[in-house]
Amino acid sequence: MKKINFTYRIETLRNDIIDSIRLLLHSHGLNEIVFSKEQDDPVWIIWFNKSNDPSECRVSGIKITDNSLTVIAHEKETDIEVECHYPYELGAKNIDWLQQMYEAVWQQLNDNYNDNN
Question: Is the preceding omega at residue 54 within 30 degrees of 0, hence cis?
Fold first, then answer.
């Protein structure tokens, strides 16, 4: 039996989600978004400090350019702000978390649009 390699498909999906976040933000004239602490369903990620110790963090914002994605998050216990940079850190490349971030961006922009109209 031949071994199946999912690497290309996973990377394609990851890039599709990041591109969708980028397009969604750009369609509203934005390069970044900040989520409130009072979010009903915040996105949680794992961030690793310089000693590679994991910390649970609440995503508090996203910054995006044509070739980068930065996830801004706050550590659960200390509330310190941390950043995860794609493609180097898990918090900015896990496809499940990226999909949740897309949903959070869509929800916040949709709620803001509805509140203003």
Answer: no
